[in-house]
């Protein structure tokens, strides 16, 4: 009725009376939210996170940007008993050059990676890929480390990490270990990260003179997850390719380094139409695309070939201009 006072809306989430933290304690009790019950801790230090992970293991989940985790909770695809919020841990954020690497902290937001001059200068592949990651609102919250930890097969950052030969740094209460991206991505949402480990940062080699990189993807709408995508990093000496790291994503259960296609173009000019055709044709052995309602396996293989041709043509232009 016009002009009638609005009844006060009931508060769904109450601050924890002990800590004053919003969202603290159990959610879901009579609250009408869709997520299952879980406990919540907003961590004050990395050490606290590691102790909680050591204690709760598989029952705990790290909450970073929440852009993937919260939907899976709401759909009850994931039912952790404890969420460990790392958003206060500033030491997990930031981008800096360290010698021959760029260090990207796990909690660095996609938007900060997209706006970074260091990334634009030294990691042009990531700079080119970032506008394809979701939409602005998601990029403002979603994190680089969240994307690597989740390992969605259609995500852009895991493919770039693999193409650029990144090292992923993991910590638990026993110490720190480094895992090469080549060993890190192990299957559909499967990684080498153990349940008691926190991903703290990625160390990514800076692009050297003589190298070119190209990113491309095909999605049904801009910002959607890709149904086919490429992240190429090539070393070109004069006109000949001396090393080709051709990574494909969106079609396999994980980002995939195409060894045979890379070998087909190695030693050849990027303008060599026969070598490009050989690389395209070798994809049949390198890839075994998944079938889904969005695109059949055959269709994805076709799209990856189209992207290969386009990306190698772009690489040739960039190599000439360098
Ligand atoms: P969260 O959702 O907080 O966490 C994701 C998972 O990683 C959880 O299991 C969490 O426990 C774990 N985790 C997070 N950080 C760490 C850590 N430091 N150590 C250990 N485990 C950790 N992504 C794309 O790549 N491309 C897209 O096109 C795309 N489109 C999207 C569209 C929409 C509408 C939405 C909602 C999301 C989309 N995303 C896309 C996902 C987005 O990029 C997410 O930000 C990203 O996947 C996860 O980052 P996050 O910080 O939000 O992680």
Task: Tell me the layout of helices and strands.
Layout (H helix, E strand, L loop, with lengths): L38 E4 L3 H11 L3 E4 L5 H6 L7 E4 L9 E4 L2 E5 L4 H5 L2 H6 L1 H6 L6 H6 L2 H7 L5 H8 L3 E6 L2 E6 H4 E3 L2 E2 L6 E8 L5 E8 L9 E10 L2 E10 L6 E2 L1 H7 L7 H14 L10 H25 L1
Bound molecules: flavin-adenine dinucleotide (FAD).
Describe this structure in words.
- This protein is an alpha+beta fold and 322 residues long.
- The chain has two domains: 90-205, 2-Layer Sandwich (Uridine Diphospho-n-acetylenolpyruvylglucosamine Reductase, domain 3); 211-321, CO dehydrogenase flavoprotein, C-terminal domain (Enolase-like, domain 1, 2-Layer Sandwich), CATH 3.30.390.50.
- 33% of the residues lie in helices and 24% in strands.
- The protein contains twelve helices and 14 strands.
- It has helices spanning 46-56, 69-74, 110-114, 117-122, 124-129, 136-141, 144-150, 156-163, 181-184, 259-265, 273-286, 297-321, and strands spanning 39-42, 60-63, 82-85, 95-98, 101-105, 167-172, 175-180, 185-187, 190-191, 198-205, 211-218, 228-237, 240-249, 256-257.
- The strands form four sheets. It has a five-stranded antiparallel beta sheet with strand order 4-5-10-6-7. It has a four-stranded antiparallel beta sheet with strand order 11-12-13-14, with helices on both faces.
- A hairpin with a 2-residue loop joins strand 6 (167-172) and strand 7 (175-180).
- Helix 10 runs antiparallel to helix 11 (273-286) and helix 11 (273-286) packs antiparallel against helix 12.
- The termini are far apart.
- Residues 1-31 have low confidence and may be disordered.
- Bound molecules: flavin-adenine dinucleotide.
- Flavin-adenine dinucleotide (FAD) binds next to strand 2, helix 7, helix 8 and strand 10.
């Amino acid at each position: 009725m016009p002009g009638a006072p609005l009844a006060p809306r009931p508060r769904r989430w109450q601050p924890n009376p002990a800590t004053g933290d919003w969202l603290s304690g159990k959610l879901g009790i009579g609250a009408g939210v869709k997520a299952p019950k879980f406990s919540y801790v907003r961590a004050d230090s990395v050490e606290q996170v590691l102790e909680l992970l050591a204690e709760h293991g598989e029952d705990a989940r790290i909450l970073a940007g929440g852009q993937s985790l919260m939907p899976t909770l709401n759909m009850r695809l994931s039912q952790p008993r404890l969420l460990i919020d790392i958003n206060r841990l500033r030491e997990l954020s930031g981008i800096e050059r360290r010698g021959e690497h760029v260090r990207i902290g796990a909690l660095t937001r996609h938007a900060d990676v997209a706006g970074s001059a260091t990334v634009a200068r030294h990691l042009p592949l990531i700079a080119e890929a970032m506008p394809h990651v979701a939409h602005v609102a998601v990029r403002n919250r979603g994190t680089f480390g969240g994307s690597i930890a989740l390992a969605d097969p259609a995500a852009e950052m895991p493919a770039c990490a693999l193409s650029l030969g990144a090292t992923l740094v993991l910590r638990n209460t026993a110490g720190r270990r480094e895992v090469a991206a080549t060993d890190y991505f192990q299957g559909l949402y499967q990684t080498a990260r153990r349940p008691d480990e926190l991903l703290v940062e990625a160390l990514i080699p800076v692009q050297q003179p003589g190298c070119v990189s190209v990113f491309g993807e095909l999605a049904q709408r801009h910002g959607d997850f890709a149904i086919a995508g490429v992240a190429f990093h090539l070393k070109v000496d004069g006109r000949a390719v001396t090393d080709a790291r051709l990574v494909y994503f969106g079609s396999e259960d994980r980002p995939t380094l195409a060894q045979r296609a890379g070998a087909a173009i190695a030693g050849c000019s990027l303008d060599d139409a026969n070598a490009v055709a050989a690389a395209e044709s070798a994809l049949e052995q390198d890839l075994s695309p998944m079938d889904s309602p969005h695109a059949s396996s055959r269709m994805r293989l076709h799209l990856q070939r189209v992207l290969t041709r386009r990306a190698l043509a772009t690489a040739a232009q960039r190599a000439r201009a360098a």
